[in-house]
Amino acid sequence: METLEEAELCFPQLNTSCRKRPRSQTEAIVIYTLMPCFSLITVVLNLLVIVSISHFRQLHTPTNLLLLSLAVSDFLVGLFVVPFEMILAEPCWLLGDLACVLCSFLPFISVPATAGNMVLISIDRYVAVCDPLRYPTKLTQKTVKGLILLCWVYSVLYNFLFLFDNLRQPGGFNSCYGQCVITVNGTVDLVIRFIIPISAIIILYVRVFVVAVSQARSMRSHVTAVKLQRSLTVTVQRSELKAARTLGVVVAVFLMCYCPYYGISLSGYSLKMGSSVNIVMFILVILNSSLNPVIYAFFYPWFRKSVKLIVTLQILKPLSFQAKVL
């Protein structure tokens, strides 16, 4: 009997050792089969987005730079965050208290970085649709690059503050030895990293929708305008509205995938790494990162053309960066 009890402990030689958490067959399949598959899909799809926008000169636009930043954050989720989460999901934490906090750092970066990129994308669409004449001067490539850098710096610095108590007292929130518990202020995190950015996104997109409806009515009422001028105006406006609709789908998917996590965080939830709830929440994060490139494939012809050129290795040809993909 004593041997059985000792076998259930993470560290049988310690009286303060945690007991090994039993794992169901379903949970094991999710962790060791589904998560690696999602990881591979996320890495490959977002790498295609990164290569496409980086390589082809025609795609070097402010809007696409924002999509590139979003793809980088999604790529990091698949490449680094998934393996870390698989380690954190083990029944016993064997790497020490400081490693527990450090392994949690990178996963937490992806959330504010993704939310920040979504806000920037919403601002881009707002200016493009609501103030199209001044859009080229307001959101230049230099300005967008500065905003992207600011977004990533904010994400890293906020995480230091977010995990400060855990870094100051590694393992201070564990109830037994062999446990990895990260305690966060769920209310503060909910407000700063979710409510504020999501409110900004919703407000901006409501404004874009109102202006889009107004423009549609205006185009229908001015059928007697000069044909060439009307054709050019309609083409430009339709292009901007189509981009707004596509990015609106991206934002909607983001909301559906991240709302459950922040709903739980509202109560000041002590995040126990490896718990079933944490695994489900994390799968939603991975799903969001893998769905974004799929959305681009459905809505953006340039992405499909770029992928074809990449897969067929035509990007290795000289001057391939000048290929017409738009």
TrEMBL record:
Keywords: Cell membrane, G-protein coupled receptor, Membrane, Receptor, Transducer, Transmembrane, Transmembrane helix. InterPro entries: GPCR_Rhodpsn, GPCR_Rhodpsn_7TM, TAAR. Pfam families: 7tm_1. One of its GO terms (molecular function) is trace-amine receptor activity. GO terms for cellular component: plasma membrane. It comes from the Eukaryota. It is a multi-pass membrane protein. This is Trace amine-associated receptor 7f-like. The gene is LOC114858711.
